[in-house]
Specification:
This protein is α/β, with parallel strands linked by helices and 180 residues long. Helix content is 53%, strand content 16%. The protein is built from 6 helices and 6 strands. Strands 1, 2, 3, 4, 5 and 6 form a 6-stranded mixed beta sheet that branches.
Length: 180
């Protein structure tokens, strides 16, 4: 009986050691990824500092086909973008009187977007129609005094596992820096 108990205790300790040996590299990797993400945010903040000097309110607008959409953080496409904007120091805003429900997204005509108190507009472009893009840009630019930043992407990327905050940080920062 004593031998069986001793054997179980040793087996239990060995199992814990193996579990610990497996968990520690995962924890180390997670910490490394967190440090890399923080470094990426800090670098991105530095690159958008000039834009933030014009104000922090930003309107996120998506063009998909010929339809314009606005989001809240509940949406799987707009949510990560909005969270990155917040991490960079921006404050997402919506047009006056617009409330987005549980889906996290709603379509709006461009006239409704003009009621947005925004310092910046981030234009998430999924359209392949150059004329539609130019038309939307012309309509959005006055909303923010000309501070319009375009980020082109595809639906397949936006709906993939790749569409994460770490993936988006440099893309959003580059769009703001390039168009700012």
């Amino acid at each position: 009986m004593l031998l069986t108990s001793l054997h179980l205790a040793i087996t239990s300790l060995a199992g814990s050691a193996i579990s610990l040996a497996l968990v520690l590299p995962v924890v180390a990797q997670t910490k490394t990824e967190a440090v890399a993400a923080a470094d990426a945010i800090n670098a991105a903040k530095a690159s958008v500092a000039d834009a933030l000097a014009s104000g922090e309110r930003v309107l996120l607008v998506e063009l998909h086909g010929s339809t314009l959409y606005v989001f809240n953080t509940e949406n799987n496409v707009g949510g990560p973008v909005l969270r990155v904007l917040e991490q960079l120091g921006f404050r997402p805003v919506l047009p006056e009187g617009v409330d987005i429900g549980a889906s996290g997204v709603t379509s709006l005509p461009v006239d409704a977007l003009r009621r947005t108190p925004a310092d910046h507009v981030l234009f998430l472009n999924f359209s392949t129609s150059h004329s539609a893009v130019r038309e939307v840009e012309a309509a959005l630019r006055p909303i923010s005094g000309g501070r319009l930043y375009r980020m082109d992407t595809t639906t397949s990327i936006a709906l993939s596992a790749e569409w994460t905050e770490p993936y988006l940080v440099p893309l959003i920062a580059e769009a703001i820096r390039a168009d700012g």
